[in-house]
Amino acid sequence: MTTPDINNINNISSAEQTSAATPVGAPDVLLRAQAVSKYYGSEQENSVLVLDDITLDLRNDEFIALLGPSGSGKSTLLRILAGLVTPSRGEVLLHGAPLEGANPNVAIVFQNFALYPWLTVLENVELGLLAKELAPKEREQRALQAIDLIGLDGFESAYPRELSGGMKQRVGFARALVVEPEILFLDEPFSALDVLVAENLRHELLDLWLARKIPTRTILMVTHNINEAVQMADRLLVFGANPGRIRVELPGLPRDQRSQPGATSIREQLADTVYRIMTNPKADAQSLLPGVAPLRPPTPSPAPVPLPARVYQTLPHVSLDELAGFVERLYTLGGREDLYELARDLQMEADDLLPLAEAANLLGFADLDAGDVVLTNVGQRFAEADILEKKVIFRQQAQVGISILRQIVQDVAASPEHRLSEDTLLAALEHSFSVDEARRQLDTAIDWGRYAELFAYDDDAGEFYLED
Amino acid sequence: MSQIHTPVAPSISRRQQAAAIASTRWADALVIIALIAVAYGVVVAASRWVAPLTPGTHIDLSPRALPLYAGLSTMRMALAYLLSLAFTLVYARIAATNRRAERVMVPLLDILQSIPILSFLPGVVLALVALFPHNNIGLELAAILLIFTSQAWNMTFSFYHSLLVIPKELREAATIYRLNVWRRFIKLELPFGQIPLIWNSMMSWAGGWFFLMAAEQFTLGSHSFQLPGLGSYLQTAANDGDVGALLLGLLALIIVIVLLDQLLWRPLIAWADRFKIEQTSSGQAPSSWVLRLLRRSTLVAWYDEHVYRPASERLDRFLSRAGGARLVAATTSASARMALGSTRAETANVKREGWRQALSAQRIVGTVIGVVALALCLLGTLAALRLIAQVPPAMWGTIAVSALATLLRTGVALAIGVAWTVPVGVAIGLNQRLAERAQPFVQMVASIPATALFPALLLVLLRLPGGLNIAAVALMLLGTQWYILFNVIAGAMAIPGDLREAAAIYQVRGWRRWRTLILPAIFPYLVTGMITATGGAWNASIVSEYVSFGNHTYSTVGLGALIAGSANNNDFALLLAATLAMAFVVVLLNRLVWRRMYRLAEDRFHLD
Asked: Do B279 and A103 lie within an 8 Å CB cutoff?
């Protein structure tokens, strides 16, 4: 996987030097995010940073894919560029002019189609044209053309619920394309579809775009499917989370190589690289590029040392059954495995696997080492243990490694009658997390603490207590 | 069930085609007949309205008069409903889009909803009759206003709630495709809230009948404020002891209710099925023979193509250009902020526009309206306090005792209702075949307004020992038990099969089965039913604790009797005090008891 014999991959590191933005005033820049940040909460203190200082250009004739774990703000960035969400700092420039309100040059295809179920296919497509104030006849004409173009002929009078998922998304595409948008945004448009249906739709969209059958000049797609991004994009931006930022920008494959039958290995190499970067969220993305030997072992993962910014660690929201299954599978595979291989083995997306690896790491069951996940001694014992022994081991590890659980146990023990309201803790969590995330963090902590039998929890009263 | 809106396939056989054409002619004929009937009804009603005031209307008990009375009653209901609908759409939309208005409007609605409306009947009638001393409009308006207050709140709440839960992607699509406020309303918000709105409209109609019957047969001492209609017909028949006419009147009322159900609500529900947000077709879609008829009618199709569509297109253009544009400008800041799902985090950007906004016309108008409303409220409160100050201190004791008596009575009525409806409802609900047959029947019975039955029942009950004291409980029970039964059946039907199978496998039987499976499972439904039932019982107290019958007035101790009696004696101070006392007790009960029960039901006993 590290054979850097393909020219274009060799170029990655140099391409990386050019930032995601070109000089201001470049003629082919259609839309620009200028130093955009987004946070929730007040500006001064305790705000949760979703996007940190993003600068990105959408240029003429290019297809950009945004990749990254959930929570990395890629969907938020798309909505900021569309004018649906206002950035907290920075601005969006449309042809050099600041954008106010919804972006008039953008159409969006949504993940869950966002069709209006009470309108027919034709009426749904016409929806995009309403604001243009055309004569009804012309409006219908153009809508029918778009329906024709996207292969929905014969379904004009059907209601969305009569259609299959693929057909629904075709309506979504027709509604977006009928307005002849200069810029097309795709918000995970294929992720709710069956594999084959998605593959077909991707090809059709690319055909339309590359053959200039649609006047759209640039496309921005948010996705978590790496192969999809490799297959379609001219530029791939990999996002990192906490706070959301662009970790690395990779050039896509030349357009003629993307679907060539012989070029499978080239595609796989680029996919591998992206996967490697995504499964090593803490590593420096540069060191993971092929051709750049890992000079120094990435700093040994700072296991239970709490981050200075936050009082409590961020608990990954995984169920303990999943965690046990993960550890056991790792044990079966010999105790050391490339995260990427493991994801393939378990047929999981990187998004789903990473939280498990993080949880195993927090609890001291596994170390993360240069993209490998390595079972520790404790992790081995955990994998071998029976139900009750597992609990004992988990309990020990949780008390040592998880600061919030430690805190709860201390506070409950110190409180009168050994009962403690969750309110204080929740308030403390809300200093570091958004309100919803604070609740989720607490719920995960409660789940783990209950499993470890560190405390009991009364859901009606919202109180922790100790059982006799 | 294959749906009706799929166009007829071209490969249809000759015979089928012939049949289709025949049914189309039928459909057209029926549609024309219906149009003529409606036109006639409107003309008759209009001629009555401007007729000189006739407080002691003579009610004709002959069966031939019944269609007219039924028509007049229905007309009042329809007008009140249109008023409620208009109120709903405007109030809910403002509350959902304007955050500052929301903070006042939603709690206000909550309180309005808890107030027993009948306590305002005497005051409203007197005030409006005084306003229009020379013709019937005052009385008619009083009836309509009363029905409005019984219909509007739940509809408004439902639509408001719908507006809040529109999925984010649908809102974003509306924004990115630049729908203006008017189109957003017509294409997204109204359709999205349609189904709950229709169901709540049906509930509102049932409630409306209850109050219409009471309003039509309203008497204040020597004054009788009768409006010609089914309610006054029933009252007169009972007064005259004419059992035949009484039964005929009830039959007419039931026929009207069934007709409305078949001709209006069923078609509406079947039609609204397309507004379901779930994107797959599942389960059995509601159907209606009337809707199928209308969809086959060529007349309706012609109207749709040549009148309705062009007209709505023109209206859409007009509102989008003229009114719409201005409306957008006026409400953009508020509604766009909501539409974009933005948070307080944009304060930085908002601040930049702070000055411009502060000076905008919208701000100024809003502030003026707010100040005027506040001033009016203060003045009203002051006047009310001055009036209440006239109530002698000893009277407050009476009010407290009366409140207790009515509380007790509603409690007993509720307990009896629960005691018989739970076993019966569960028995029906657990037997699916029985439930399917019984549910529409129970729904029907529940929608017969108890106030229509009062005159008939009083004939019997007043002769029993205990008199009105017992009769009042029976009357309350009559109006409210159906809500509980209805909900219990629904709850029992919703118990998942696997839970019942698990109980059977582990031999959980008898009382234990009730305690571990049935009661917890139906609890949320039971609570919903009981909340509706107590509301009804408090309302019923005003017409059941104090009744004029024949030439006698009967009354018993209770808050309802106090309200009706004080109105009778023109004792406005006491009327106000007693009314407020009732509102206070009901709001208190809601806050302390029902809301907690409801939350408990939601948290712990929610099955999914």
From this structure: no
